[in-house]
Amino acid sequence: MITRIEIDGFKSFLDFTLDVPPFLALVGSNAGGKSNLFDALGCLADLQTVELDAVLAARRGRPRELFHWDSERRPVEEFTIKADVLVDSRVDGVWQRSPAFVQGIIGLNVTNQADSISLIGMEPESGWSPSSTWRWCTPEPMEMRKAAPAADRYALRENGSNLAAVLGRMRDSQAFKDLVVDLVALVPGVTGVEPVLDERDQEWSFDVVFSGQGAIPATLVSDGTLRIIALLAALYDPDHPGVLLIEEIENGLHPGRIAELLRRIARRVTDLSDPASAEEPLRQVVLTSHSPVVVGELVRERPGSVVFLDTVTRVQPGGPTSRITRARPVRDAGEPGTYVSPREVSRYLGTVRQDAQ
After folding, report:
1. Upper half-sphere CA count for residue 91 (Cβ side, 13 Å)
2. Three-state SS for 81?
3. Which pLDDT band, with edges at 50, 70 and 90, does 108 fall under?
4. Which class in CATH covers the domain with range 2-138+247-355?
5. Is 352 in a helix, a strand, or coil?
6. Which DSSP letter does residue 115 get?
7. What is the pLDDT of residue 98?
8. What is the Cα–Cα distance from 308 to 35, expressed in whole angstroms?
9. 3 state SS of 346
10. 4 and 58 in contact (C-beta within 8 Å)?
């Protein structure tokens, strides 16, 4: 679980800090920095399995473009990305020790000198991989419809290509029953999901059961229904808890289903104030959205989980200006520029709805 993010000099971030609760929605208009923040976390996650040069090359744009540039087109000398984490020591591949939850830091510092990029300090401790349980979820309709090898025991892949195998692995668990309950509540007419094992080819596929129609193969099910199944599978998977990162959660979903989906997702994350949480694996959801439906629902039901990201001009005395990303939680009062008031939320929602017309 990520508890705090600090970014300095990476893309649109300078001296950026953000405390991260178990359920966090990063909201705001496009180009506000939401994707850049996910890219920063992606750098940390990739460090566990990929060499530094490959980590930087995998990001959007050329490596030098990862550095923050001011208005005079000069890059900063270095960037730092750091995350404070709470690690479930009972998860495979993570440091084993007591107590069950261990605090730690994972980060990297990259310097830009003599036209070279290198890693300096702040590497994850040897043998310690807290970001191995961070999962990105951006399911693609064509991929979710594919059959998957029965031997696949992995978490849901980012594009959802092994969704059938995940459902097959989960089918006898209480988590699968809970998933079906939520799916039935979210998609009118659906009464169940049936994983199907091809014994000859040793591949999983799945059907979705509809009232009055029976079992319909995944190849014929709507994109929106498949996306809901994938999100629930990633969240409910009993073998792969951790951090679930969902970019633009509203994509491909009917607006009328988003509010209930958010409510059901929020119920599954870890409640750190509940002592019983110590007995369960850590689950966290970080999502992004610019949907007025998402913003309106969360501000009404869980205002503490909403953080607006936008860009502002930073002026340094005697120096060039910079466009930087700032994070502002929703509050009733505070120092100007550090929070979003309910009135500003209403203004934002009105503007977004007007632009969508």
Report:
1. 24
2. strand
3. confident
4. alpha beta
5. helix
6. T
7. 44
8. 13
9. helix
10. no
Instruction: Among 50-59, 194-203, 307-316, name the most confident range.
Output: 194-203
The rounded distance, in Å, linking the Cα atoms of 170 and 154 is 11
**Which amino acid belongs to residue 205?**
S
At 354, which amino acid appears?
Q
**Is 35 in a helix, a strand, or coil?**
helix
352, pLDDT greater than 70: no
What is the value of pTM for the model shown?
0.90
Tokens of 122: 């702040």
Task: Pick left, alpha or beta for residue 102 (phi over 0 → left; psi -120 to 50 → alpha; otherwise beta).
Answer: beta
Show the beta-strand stretches assigned E in the chain.
Answer: 2-8, 16-19, 23-27, 78-88, 101-113, 116-119, 134-136, 148-149, 190-198, 203-210, 214-217, 242-246, 283-289, 306-315, 321-329
Which residues is 9 bridged to in the sheet? none
Q: Token pair for residue 217?
A: 């193969």
User: In sequence order, which ranges of 9-156 are alpha helices (DSSP H)?
Assistant: 34-46, 52-57, 141-144
- Region for residue 122 given its phi and psi (left: phi exceeds 0; alpha: psi -120 to 50; beta: otherwise): left
Q: Are strands 16-19 and 2-8 parallel, antiparallel or unpaired?
A: antiparallel
Cα dihedral 210, 212, 217, 218, rounded to 10, equals -30
User: How far is 158 from 140, CA to CA, in rounded Å?
Assistant: 9
Mean pLDDT score, 135-150: 97
Handedness of CA 338, 34, 297, 242 (dihedral sign): negative
Positions of CATH 3.40.50 in the chain: 2-138+247-355
Average pLDDT over residues 285-312: 95
Percentage of the chain beyond pLDDT 70 is: 87
pLDDT by residue (tens digit) across 36-79? 999 999 988 887 777 777 777 767 667 778 899 998 888 898 99
Closest Cα partner for 5 from 60, 85, 97? 85
